[in-house]
Design brief:
- This protein has 17 helices and 25 strands.
- The protein has a nine-stranded mixed beta sheet, with helices on both faces.
- β8 and β9 form a beta hairpin.
- The two termini are about 50 Å apart.
- It binds xanthosine-5'-monophosphate.
- Xanthosine-5'-monophosphate binds next to α10.
């Protein structure tokens, strides 16, 4: 059958989907993304979904989750899920839940397994078809299945976990203690591929071409006779959303508005406009509201407050503009380029905690969504999928592959400080001990940044390491520090000849002057990356201004990361000659006293500082 045909779409709507039951954290979303990459549409459903709602699905995956089965109020699924005759794969918590519900037992393990482990496979059929006798996998558990449920057999073990994988071939129910969805599990995708195609016998029904056809149809149906007003930042998501709406409705029914909020990068607006013009978009408009935005941020220090004010301001300015243009509110609906991770991080799914309030998920927007006044055509996609759609819609490669840029812009890359956050005596003793092991100097900073640990938000201190070393050692030290000292969620490395103990916190909030300074540093970095052909090898590169003064000025932190969908990320180990060259350029800015390099992965630190 031809993909993208009517028949495929009919099937996609009804059957042939894989259900992923969500038990909190980011697990279900990562699994759903992987399944879709393999070519099958997957839908995330709440953990306690009624079994009748799962009828027609080709397979069910029970995700991991941050809880312990033994706790009374831990999340469960319906036992009816296992009576549908549909193949089931339980992962980590899901694996334990299967045993718990079907008559086995889950106990506390003597050893906790975190990180890489070797599993020994007892058989290589079904989900393990085509694998080797030993495989490297990613483990993260304290509990384990200590007694099998009737009908199950062990199909893999590790040194510390006798029940690393179990199967009931009769009922097609499988459990994995490890995580096949993370890239550290080397044959993880093969296992998922085996499950969906060999065990569930699903047919390929998901690709971006099908998505575009299906979504275009949906947009047309939903917006019969209506028009869309879309805020276009020039970032990847809103640009792709704009192109998709244009394809579905034609330019006369889409109004793209770019608001200069004073938080954009150097020359950004002009560049975006010229790209849009070159690509034939006649319905793209610009306004300057930077003063209004900056006025509303005067004297604001708290990151969540900043995010909420910026998000709300977008709506106010957009409102003013539609009034000025005399657009009939009955005829116009607001469009947003929200993508999946935006929803998760704002706590938009049932068990997700609020990590950060994304600009497109503030209260006023949420209210409009509930009233059906907003359309978000790409809200189910991940960044990699958005990019594919963008290229298929004919957008230029360099636009689609721009680094992601957050909606609140430089507003969340320019740290503000009212007063020093006090550092308790406890972490001080511990941290000196750890830094000594690595022969590095250390200093805990009296500022805070956002992190994510155990799927919850943290707001904690960064610490600085100083000394001649390499990224391998820095990563070890960084992991050691953040694993052992709760008060620290981020580690940065000093790149310049600055005496780290001699700093002063500079009381500051968002001003045009500070933002201009950050814009200059950011432009230096981006020019350097492009000139040295490094730009596309890095997923995202926030340049952050922190109010740490060593002589009247402030400091810059370089935060290059690599990721596939921003749910997890590793700091990039750029060749040191480039790192030093960028730091030297930045140090030439009169108001900059020091430059640092962020050596923290996500988790425990988020990509952006705020
Ligand atoms: P964090 O910092 O949470 O960011 O690791 C994950 C990804 O999301 C981007 N980000 C945002 N994007 N609106 C957006 O459109 C926002 O409010 C927002 N906050 C963070 C961030 O740049 C990274 O790519």
């Amino acid at each position: 059958m031809k993909q993208g045909s009517e028949e495929t779409m009919k099937k996609w709507n009804n059957e042939n989907k894989i259900a992923v039951l969500d038990f909190g954290g980011q697990y279900a979303h990562l699994i759903a993304n992987r399944i879709r990459r393999l070519g099958v549409y997957s839908e995330i459903l709440p953990n306690d979904v009624a079994p009748r709602q799962l009828k027609g699905f080709k397979g069910i995956i029970i995700s991991g989750g941050p809880q312990n089965i033994s706790e009374d109020d831990s999340l469960k699924c319906h036992s009816g899920v296992f009576k549908l005759g549909t193949p089931v794969l339980g992962i980590c918590y899901g694996h334990q839940l299967i045993s718990h519900i079907l008559g086995g037992k889950v106990s506390r393990g003597k050893t906790k397994e975190y990180g890489k482990a070797i599993v020994y496979l007892k058989q290589k059929k079904g989900i393990f078809s085509g694998l080797s006798d030993q495989e490297t996998v990613w483990m993260s558990h304290g509990d384990y299945v200590s007694k099998l449920a009737p009908g199950f057999e062990i199909i893999a073990t590790t040194v510390d976990c006798p029940t690393a994988a179990v199967a009931d071939y009769q009922r097609n129910i499988f459990g994995l203690q490890f995580h096949p969805e993370v890239t550290h599990t080397s044959s993880g995708m093969k296992i998922l591929d085996n499950f969906i195609y060999k065990v569930c016998r699903a047919g390929k029904n998901w690709d971006m071409k099908t998505f575009i056809t299906q979504e275009t149809k949906k947009i047309k149906e939903r917006l019969k006779g209506k028009k869309v007003f879309l805020l276009v930042s020039g970032g990847v998501d809103s640009t792709v959303c704009f192109a998709l709406l244009n394809k579905a409705l034609g330019p006369s029914r889409v109004y793209g508005l770019n608001i200069d909020n004073g938080l954009m990068r150097q020359n950004e607006q002009k560049e975006i406009e010229s790209v849009f013009r070159k690509n034939g978009f006649t319905n793209f408009h610009r306004i300057n509201a930077s003063e209004e935005f900056l006025n509303s941020l005067t004297g604001v220090f708290d990151p969540e407050n900043k995010r909420k004010i910026i998000g709300q301001k977008f709506i106010t300015v957009q409102d003013q503009e539609t009034k000025k243009l005399r657009l009939n509110p009955k005829e116009w609906i607001l469009g947003q380029g929200t993508i999946y991770p935006d929803t998760i991080e704002t706590g938009g799914t049932k068990h997700a905690a609020v990590i950060k309030t994304h600009h497109n998920r503030v209260e006023a927007v949420q209210k409009m969504i509930n009233q059906g006044k907003i359309i978000e055509p790409i809200k189910e996609l991940y960044k990699d999928e958005v990019r594919q759609v963008g290229e298929m819609l004919g957008l230029p490669h360099n636009l689609v592959y721009r680094h992601p840029f957050p909606g609140p812009g430089l507003g969340i890359r320019c740290l503000c400080a009212d007063k020093e956050y006090p550092i308790g005596p406890k972490p001080l003793g511990k941290i000196n001990g750890i830094a000594r092991q690595y022969k590095l100097k250390v200093k805990i900073l009296p500022i805070k940044s956002v992190g994510v640990q155990g799927d919850s938000r943290t707001y904690a201190h960064p610490c600085v390491l100083a000394g001649n070393t390499n990224f391998k050692t820095l990563e070890k030290a960084s992991t050691d520090i953040t694993n052992n000292i709760r008060e620290i969620n981020r580690v940065i490395w000093l790149l310049t000849k600055t005496a780290i103990s001699k700093f002063r916190l500079k009381k500051s909030y968002l001003t045009k002057m500070r933002l201009d300074l950050l814009r200059e540093a950011d432009a230096l970095v981006n020019d350097y990356l492009r000139k040295n052909k490094l730009y596309e090898s890095i997923w995202q590169f926030p340049v952050v201004l922190i109010p740490l003064s060593f002589g009247g000025g402030e400091s810059i932190v370089l935060r290059p990361i690599n990721s596939t969908e921003a749910m997890t990320a590793n700091f990039t180990r750029l060749p040191l000659k480039h790192v030093k060259a960028m730091a030297n350029k930045i140090m030439k800015l009169k108001e900059i006293d020091a430059v640092f390099y962020d050596v923290t992965n996500k988790p425990p630190a988020t990509i952006e500082w705020e």
